[in-house]
Amino acid sequence: MARTEQRQHRTDGALARSYLANERVGRNYDDMAPGLSRYIHDAIMANADRASS
């Protein structure tokens, strides 16, 4: 995997964690649909894990 792709997946992971760690961000999504912030987090992390395998 190219270095740029690895760096992008690390950035994606940081973004995914913000959906859970930052209450304001998480609440924004959870107000749209309960559990949406967790769903988005899990989807981003699954994609990053899959790409790094």
From TrEMBL:
State one Pfam family annotation: TipAS
The segment(s) forming the TipAS antibiotic-recognition domain are 14-47
Organism of origin: Acrocarpospora corrugata
* N-terminal signal peptide: none
InterPro entries in the cross-refs: TipA-like_antibiotic-bd, TipAS_dom
Q: What is this protein called?
A: TipAS antibiotic-recognition domain-containing protein
